[in-house]
Amino acid sequence: MDPFLKIGITCYPSLGGSGVVATELGKQLAEKGHEVHFISHSVPFRLGSFHKNIMYHEVEVSDYYVFRYPPYDLSLATKMAQVAKAQELDILHVHYAVPHAVCAFLAKQMVGDNLKIVTTLHGTDITVLAQDESLKDLIRLAINESDAVTSVSLDLMRETREVLDISRDIDLTYNFVDGREYYPRDNCSCRNDFADPGEKVLMHISNFRPVKRVSDVVDVFKKVNDQIPSRLLFVGEGPDLPKIQWKIKEMGLGDRVHFLGKQDDIAQVISMADILLLPSEKESFGLVALEAMACGVPTVGSVAGGIPELVAHGETGFLAPIGDIEKMAEYCISLLSQPELASRVREACLKRAKGEFSSEIITSAYEAIYYRVLNRKLPHLKPACG
Ligand code: GMT
């Protein structure tokens, strides 16, 4: 029997950690020899140019005059079923319960039981959407009917069980980074564009949603900059951005803060920083902290969701209670003023990112889940990064 699998992947293709992880996983699987089919409304932004073994199937939404709202979810479910039949998919791996796991459930009803559904939970599908009573039953159905469910942290797994009152098995599959892309880049010239040689660089990267508590980033920065001349670099954009820009102006920090907008080459950008700030109030994992870790940049952030599973407090960064600006600023000042501490933490970051959060380990974990649900023996395949 052919050892390789045919795997459909559906994710949110635009910016966001779940889209990044799903796309990078697809690339890793394709490199190992599996056939990967992305099914979505647009090409996932991290897919880039041509990749051997990867195909993209676009979902087109029917816009008949009877529809007040064109039903994307139905078009997606239909497309999943069509692709699964035409390509003889073994696995449909969906990222996010709503609507993707629900659509996969519908697709499976059309295709039959040979198609196995793997659902990966990324966070806000549980921490926000499943709190909504009107969606709870739907999310529970999609999760219970999946052949395997994975969670990106133990904390999210616990919350899923609690919020949805379910007891089924859930596999832990942490997020990962590809070490060929995420490593400390030599970035002196770029850094010099923003900071003088004696200044430190703090960075925040997010989609500026309220859960990220971007206002705390500014308050922490103010306290640090009062003691150690520093610059704050913001990457990304989102709903809270105008509020933050206004706050910075009011605090008279305009000349110390730079907005870089959305960036493609995150490893290059992160390598400019001395510290990544992540003071979120909800964060199922915090992929950006892993991206920073792999580039040797420690995170100072909050004890929220899965962050403590990723950032080892005192070793690869420092964590304070949500909203404890004083403590976060103290941690930053210690890191920035003690070169030996900074260098020890940096080394620990590089080591930890290459361990349990490496693409090799996590891709193999997903493969093991695929073969398990298919009831097939796990073959020995060459790793993607040979
Ligand atoms: O953080 C976001 O707002 C984006 C969101 C997403 O949909 O990509 O991120 C979630 O999934 C990421 C990948 O698993 C995690 O690293 C993020 O922690 C998680 N966000 C939240 O839980 C708020």
UniProtKB/TrEMBL annotation:
<feature type="domain" description="Glycosyl transferase family 1">
    <location>
        <begin position="196"/>
        <end position="348"/>
    </location>
</feature>
<protein>
    <submittedName>
        <fullName>N-acetyl-alpha-D-glucosaminyl L-malate synthase BshA</fullName>
    </submittedName>
</protein>
<dbReference type="GO" id="GO:0016757">
    <property type="term" value="F:glycosyltransferase activity"/>
</dbReference>
<feature type="domain" description="Glycosyltransferase subfamily 4-like N-terminal">
    <location>
        <begin position="16"/>
        <end position="178"/>
    </location>
</feature>
<dbReference type="InterPro" id="IPR023881">
    <property type="entry name" value="Thiol_BshA"/>
</dbReference>
<dbReference type="Pfam" id="PF13439">
    <property type="entry name" value="Glyco_transf_4"/>
</dbReference>
<dbReference type="InterPro" id="IPR001296">
    <property type="entry name" value="Glyco_trans_1"/>
</dbReference>
<dbReference type="InterPro" id="IPR028098">
    <property type="entry name" value="Glyco_trans_4-like_N"/>
</dbReference>
<dbReference type="Pfam" id="PF00534">
    <property type="entry name" value="Glycos_transf_1"/>
</dbReference>
<dbReference type="InterPro" id="IPR050194">
    <property type="entry name" value="Glycosyltransferase_grp1"/>
</dbReference>
<dbReference type="GO" id="GO:0071793">
    <property type="term" value="P:bacillithiol biosynthetic process"/>
</dbReference>
